[in-house]
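Checklist before submission:
- one chain only
- standard amino acids only
- sequence pasted in full

Submission:
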Amino acid sequence: QGLVALAEGLMFDAIAGAGPEPSPERLRATVAAYLAGVLPPEGPDR
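Returned file contents:
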């Protein structure tokens, strides 16, 4: 659940920083970059 909470916090920050019309692409890129830095490169299944 900690990972979800942190991801939600990042999404909130991304939306707040993107102005009144946040870009879905920017939001996905922000979350993907965060997950890439937290999860092992091979993914959680291994």
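Reviewer check: Residues 2-18 form the longest helix (17 residues).
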